[in-house]
Amino acid sequence: MIDYFIKRILVMMLTLLVVSALVFIVIQLPEGDYLTSYIAELESQGEAADPQKIIYLQKEFNLDQPIWKQYLLWIGGILRGDFGRSIEYDLPVIDVIGEVFVFAIILNASVIAFIYIVAFPIGVYSATHQYSWGDHGLTFIGFIGLATPNFLLALILMFLAKKFLGISMGGLMDPNFENQPWTFDKVVSVLEHLIVPVIVIGTSGTAGMIRRLRANLLDELHKQYVTTARAKGLSNVRLLVKYPLRMALNPFIADIGNLLPQVVSGSVIVAVILDLPTTGPVLLDALRSQDTFLAGSFLLFISLLTVFGMFLSDLLLAVLDPRIRLTGGIAK
Amino acid sequence: MTDKLAHFVSQEPFNPMKVDELTPEQEKFYMASQWKMMWWRLRKHRLAVWSGAILFVLYASILVSECIAPYGLQTRNADFIFAPPQKVQFFHEGEFIGPFVYSLDYRLNMEILRREYADNQDVVQPLRFFCRGDVYEFWSLFETDFHLVCAAKSGTFFFLGTDRLGRDIWSRMIYGTRISLTVGLVGIILSFILGISIGGAAGYFGGWVDNLAQRAIEILRSIPELPLWMGLSAALPVNWSPIAVFFGLTLILGLVDWPGLARAVRSKLLALREEDYCTAAVLMGAPPRRIIYRHLLPNFMSHLIASATLSIPSMILAETALSFLGLGLRPPITSWGVLLVEAQNMEAVELYPWLLLPAIPVIITVLAFNFFGDGLRDAADPYK
To answer: Is this structure's pTM higher than 0.90?
Structure first.
């Protein structure tokens, strides 16, 4: 178990390192950097940029160094907890990202929890009542949920809420609570505003999860050991919970590797539409204004979220399934 | 000593066909090619067939978008800004007179500073069919002004309303279909090629090639697709022409999407390369390329096509999302996502809800692709 744990951590570190290099390349791809657009902006306003300031800024952000050196400086800084400075906000990146990222984690964790809580009972019901009306109905709804693009769903819900309820659904809390210290009421307000985005982001994931759990459980239910157990007189519930469900649960948890990137992707665009102060809007701005450090840290953080999520699911699997502990591989 | 074994010899002439003489239907079934059997199987899947038909109509429409659209892509009707959809009517004062619309009366309400439109029930504007309207260049080949439907002379026909520049949304949606649907196709072709090559090499050679490919797939899959797409498309130079941006975008979509396909190819190849016929091909001196493409791939081509069909909608959606965020296609290239940019402003949408309508073809297309792909996947293995 310890061996497996250490191996997984090493793999995770290596993955993150490669991801960070990839992210850095992606961020450096656009022609020019923030300074060139900054100078252009100044010139368009009829002001000449102060050459002294330009040189100072170049030094400050290491823009005069070759790319690979910039990368090493960047990654070295991150390892020491220094994420660089956002040029746009003129603040350390960590200050810009901090609160935003906490919200992003809360949002994504709630979506994952929502998906599991909803998908589990429905999936089990669908499998045990195969081809019943309930199963057909749920499958059909699931199909629609799977195929409906979440950001369009968000757009339509926003419109309906505005049109018929006269409320604006955007934001993460009531405007009154913004910049206020955390109180019980504020937490309640945040929770209320979380409901819609969680449902919107989680719909397609839930639908997919239901379909997979149903398929897995059906596979197990048709195996001989189930028939044997039933012939021996085990009660239905006890039989289900004791054997096939535990087998079907395995892929259910392993699936988090597919689920997490999907959820994080969805939350980025839904956050832009619903105007949630999470990763979406800030990342979009940072990308548009070529704020290298900010955008890079965001992409890295988002990837960290998924990589770490997968790591957790692997550990959970190892706890759940002795075969994985033994061989150190993932039973698929 | 024993007698010779007694055995029966039939006196009738020998007919080797006699025992398993097949009925014509059976013969047809046994002689059918794999693709034919797939088609039979698919035909039973009603929803998939209907979805396929819808997709066929949509794709056919992009060949003649200009003819179907009543107005040109950039035609502005300065007098009809944010005009509401005009209902097509058939009966005027209880009398059937064919499809027509009532003319729109426009009034600027100075109190709330809002444009107000009302149907003028007295003026009937019958629609014209196979008519002359806005001039356009058909596939940049020749100039013509033929349209399937147009408004009455000096009348208007805004089936789905107009936008802030007075452009007909229905026409723009028809033009947008062309771009939105091709983005998915071009992207999937690229991701298909990458997926088969990389997955094929990994599965066939195994060893370090496989290891490398596996790690690459894992890493690519651990980065959420949309933010990666956002980062890459933000890197497209601003001074590129819209066409270049279009191809750049499809390139990006394809580059990020291949790991799923590569994984499927790899796992199938791993199993298949142990088969005897594969060993035989190796012994006869066939190079790996030939073995992979000629002997192994055809085994699960149908599966690959089905899974490719299932990943086209995610590309269409990605393009829509990126364009919606202003990172994707830029006007004058018009896709459904570009049209939806107008719907970003909730205040405008509340007043002019028809700005949201371009979301409907997106949803229909995505649903159709999903149902069709699902049917294909079920039909992909007709021998089961």
So the answer is: no
